[in-house]
Write a structure and sequence with these properties.
This protein is an all-alpha fold and 185 residues long. The chain has one domain. Helix content is 85%, strand content 0%. Helix 1 runs antiparallel to helix 2, helix 2 crosses helix 7 and helix 4 packs across helix 6. It comes from Azotobacter bryophylli. Pfam families: VTT_dom (PF09335). InterPro entries: DedA_domain, VTT_dom. Keywords: Membrane, Transmembrane, Transmembrane helix. This is DedA family protein.
Length: 185
């Protein structure tokens, strides 16, 4: 089974699992695969949106129920939780919307939000809005990357002959220059 067959067969599962956790890399690659025709762009976006919202909601509920115990067991999460708490004081809605865009806070952020006084209904609402912004943005980045590569390589093919002739011309000129220089010495 080739790599492309694997992508076509298990790509949506990979998108779901990747977006459930920290899925930027998986989503960019899925966007590229959609550009290449191996996956459907709308289906990749919807899968990423659902999994991203579900994952963050799950971490939020884990924070609600087990937040303190998790911080005691995994002290590395505490630094992220403290950062989120400091930001929540002034910017509650933007933090909920943007937590998935903040490096290093993709898991710790929703857990910290679950431990905070943010009402569950508010988190659900802004989590869905944030996922609806995040999924097409990240998947679209991969899709546009594929489009850019296509344009670059199309231009390269168009100018390939001229580029080869230029390289050969420069190499010949350099060789002649060296030979002339040796002759003068």
């Amino acid at each position: 089974m080739s790599l492309m067959q694997l992508v076509a067969e298990y790509g949506y599962l990979a998108v779901f699992l990747g977006a459930l956790l920290e899925g930027e890399t998986v989503l960019v690659l899925a966007g590229y695969a959609a550009h290449q025709g191996y996956l459907s762009l709308p289906l990749v976006v919807v899968t990423a949106l659902c999994a991203g919202a579900l994952g963050d909601q799950g971490f939020f509920l884990v924070g609600r129920r087990y937040g303190t115990a998790l911080l005691q067991r995994y002290p590395k999460l505490e630094a992220g939780a403290q950062r989120v708490d400091r930001m929540l004081v002034r910017f509650q809605t933007p933090v909920i919307l943007g937590i998935r865009f903040m490096y290093g806070l993709r898991v710790a952020g929703p857990i910290a939000l679950g431990m905070s006084a943010v009402p569950t209904w508010r988190f659900v609402l802004f989590n869905l809005i944030g996922a609806a912004i995040w999924a097409p943005l990240v998947v679209g980045t991969g899709y546009l990357f594929g489009q850019t590569l296509e344009w670059v390589f199309a231009d390269i093919r168009r100018y390939e002959e001229a580029a080869v002739l230029t390289i050969v011309g420069v190499a010949v000129a350099f060789a002649l220059f060296r030979r002339l220089r040796r002759h003068v010495r």
